[in-house]
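Please predict the structure of the following assembly.
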Amino acid sequence: MAVYKRTYTGYDGPLTPEWSRFLILPRANYRQLGQSKLLTILRMAAMFYPLGCIVWVYLANNLSVLSTVGFDVGQYIKVDTSLFLYFCWVQGAFAYIMTALVGPSLVSPDLVNNALPLYFARPFSRTEYVLGKLSVLGILLSTITWIPGLVVWIIQASLGGWDWTVANLWVAGSLFLGMTLWVLLLSLIALAVSAWVKWRIAAGALLLGIFVAGAGFGTAINQIVRTDYGSLVNLPEVMFTLWSQLFGLESTTGLPAEYAWATYVTVCAGCLWLLWRKVRAFEVVK
Amino acid sequence: MADAVINLDGLTVRLGKREILHGLKGELTGRTIGLLGPNGAGKSTLIQTLLGFCPPTSGTASIFGEDIRSQARKLRGVIGYMPENDSFIADMTAVGFVKLMGELSGLPAEAALERAHEVLFYVGLGEARYRPLGTYSLGMKQLAKLAQAIVHGPRLVILDEPTNGLDPPARARMIKLIKEMRDTGKMHLVVCSHLLRDVEETCEEVLILKAGRIVHYSNLEEERKANQRFVEIEMLGNEAGFAEALAQRGCECTPAGQGRLKMVVPPEFELREIYVLAAERDLQLRRLNYRRDTLEDIFLKAMATDGSL
């Protein structure tokens, strides 16, 4: 019978597993994000650096090819942990731009027209909601951060041989952990901003401001007070310190790693608290 | 207990420092339950508590025998909720929105999509289902809210002010839908409304709240049967013996002068007997007003009481 001719009927078919329901939100969001041309261009642009890294890795492992054509660049082209550290830095920047583009529209549309009670009147909790919304950015940013990073590492491993692979397995772990930490930080900040600032343009501006103004403010403190602790409000530098530690390199920020970790945890906890305050079925007006 | 749709067991709810619901007790068994009360009576808080949004301070409640504290998630799977205020995602199409809500209730994606189309046609939004919700009129938004509330085939649908802001034709359509849903026999309905007429038209049972307490509970059908019926007639001609003839049939008559007669008729009395008696006496009946106790009378009586049940 045609749909429009049917009358109301109950539903007694199968239900989806409860654990998987948070994934409904990314699916619904990607349907809308897929229509954004700007996002598609950005995702394509974010693939150039990983492609460049793959070429670099290939050349580093095939120096004899360059020698045959007269280029003796063996001392310049090499694959070490700094390659992956700068990979994090460049792809992290793309992830940040993408977050500023996508993040503001994640929670605010649900708050603007009071849609949250409809989510929570179903067998769907606040934790699942936050997890679902985090997954939107988490999955999207993963495709331009740790996934291509691991592809670069795997290509290097396949070209570098078994000894290189075993000796540098920790680099893959550091790359995955470092990028995941950045993705989590960006996602939490974006969700918190989107939950508190309903106007998308303002939320996008605030998201940019948190990083840019923080960086400027941190640099100003460092210059005026002649210290390195101003970098605590400079989130990119905090992340760079963490990445440097994860890759076993000395950080150029001068910020102790333990302070960077403390800042990271504080910011994440603060964002979760802000989200918890706002993401609820109804507000008690005192 | 097993047959109760909603069972309130000393339910007390405090929001901030204010106690909103004060130890509500009662058992609601009807297919359609009306929730009435003035502003601030605690109707919305009761609904939010039943949905698990507000934790009870003391006491508890159960829906279909399941405790709202321990079985909140399970219960939300069998409840559909249509909130009072605007609730939608503006840039989503109606079909996308209703499908999303169906999926969140546990329906697989294909089933949710099929049912989204089905319920949108059912509520009368079939032709507008691909339009973004932000472009809908108020009446259409109400219908979209109703569609999302029933997409997963709930056993209990809670409608908070379903006719809020609707023009008369839209209101009539909403009432018709509620009656249709009631008559399918597949779901129970809780209708929370300020409009007594809406509740009177759709509900079998009424719970009246005042200042967080239940001040009246009634089964409307039984109440209607038990209520007195008032008739006022105006006649032309010789009315001698007419009042006595009516009194013999159990009516309490009071002459009101100028050929008018007011009376209270017994439940078994049929109004056609008035016409028969008038015809026998060659009386012209110029006017006949008939009135039962309405829900408004019940409501006003309940509002006049101070204590809770």
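Chain A has 13 helices and no strands. The interface with chain B takes residues 3-4, 6-16, 18, 21, 24, 27-28, 31-32, 109-110, 112-115, 117-125, 281-282, 284, 286 of chain A (CB under 8 Å).
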